[in-house]
Design a protein that fits this description.
It contains twelve helices and three strands, in the order ααβααββαααααααα. With 301 residues, it is mainly alpha-helical. Among the domains are: 8-78; 163-284, no CATH class. Strands 1-3-2 form a three-stranded antiparallel β-sheet. The two termini are 39 Å apart. 19% of the residues are buried. Residues 122-136, 138-144, 153-157 and 289-301 have low confidence and may be disordered.
Length: 301
């Protein structure tokens, strides 16, 4: 589940004592709780790694948040408020499903061998009426079409994606799993179609898309908020700008005369690791993957 209601008043009442650092960690843990639709594994080392909790201050803030808001229960951290929200959603979904089954069973008993056009329309209306009972998500449903035998151009492209698009979709899914290990496997063909739109309409190269996602996937905030090509496309201008700004700041910091030898060594290792990741991405998408204009991808710039 990638969407949930947020009551600002209740939140402030319960968290007025938190520091800004504790607020950030708390919200990240809550987001993971809802994305996974269940409690957090009580593996502190793993939770701190997947939520970018590194420094002693961050680790202490994490422990404070866990102590204040979560309860250890048979190897997992439970949050009473989150469990209550999820229970309501699951109950609503179950009731809608049971209602649909009863209505379909009743209609099946009353059905005749020959179905009139009015019957078909009634069935379609019934299906559409039960759509609200499903769990909320961030994807738009594919509209029902009368001409089911004819695939639109968009549908054909989803069923037969470009090899480079599907490879990048798999790459993004691997990054999502790193950020949220319990994430369900998506429809990679739909993901690939979104990547196609980024190439053809937004005039982006696969390499550019991969580099921006790779940066976001390592970012403390964005790694838990960029969990699909749709969200990546929506936030791409901002992500690209932040990535370039981050790179510029790192370069300026690396040239400071007052930096100690130890700090220089640390920065050098960070740059080397970043360069290795960048080269891995370039190598992955420079063999057999097309640009937005149909040709092979060469060196950027």
């Amino acid at each position: 589940m990638h969407h949930y209601a947020f009551n600002v008043g209740d939140y402030r009442k319960d968290t007025g004592h938190l520091t800004l650092l504790e607020h950030g960690i708390y919200r990240m843990l809550i987001d993971s709780y809802y994305v996974n639709e269940g409690p957090l594994d009580a593996d502190d080392t793993k939770l701190m790694r997947t939520h970018c909790i590194r420094t002693p201050d961050e680790q202490q803030a994490y422990r404070n948040v866990i102590d204040d808001f979560f309860e250890l229960d048979d190897g997992v951290y439970r949050h009473a408020g989150c469990d209550k929200v999820l229970a309501k959603i699951f109950e609503k979904s179950a009731k809608a499903r049971e209602s649909a089954e009863r209505r379909w069973a009743k209609k099946s008993k009353a059905s005749k061998p020959s179905r009139k056009p009015d019957d078909a329309n009634a069935m379609r209306t019934h299906s559409e009426g039960n759509a609200d009972g499903m769990l909320p998500n961030t994807h738009n449903p594919i509209p029902i079409k009368d001409n089911s035998n004819e695939l639109s151009t968009s549908e054909k492209k989803i069923s037969d994606p470009h090899p480079g698009d599907i490879k990048l979709a798999e790459f993004i899914y691997a990054g999502v799993l790193d950020a949220t290990p319990k994430a369900k496997k998506p429809d990679l063909h739909k993901w690939a179609d979104t990547i196609r739109l980024m190439r053809e309409r937004d005039k982006l190269e696969l390499r550019e898309i991969a580099e921006v996602f790779s940066w976001a996937n390592k970012h403390q905030f964005w790694r838990l908020n960029i969990l699909s090509p749709e969200k990546l496309r929506e936030k791409y201008p901002r992500l690209s700008a932040e990535k370039e700004n981050d790179h510029a700041n790192s370069s300026r910091s690396g040239n400071a005369d007052t930096r100690s030898v130890t700090e220089q060594s640390t920065v050098g290792r960070a740059h080397a690791a970043s360069e290795r990741r960048r080269q891995d991405i370039l190598e992955k998408y420079s063999h057999g993957a097309g640009t937005g204009h149909g040709g092979p991808m060469g060196p950027h710039g």
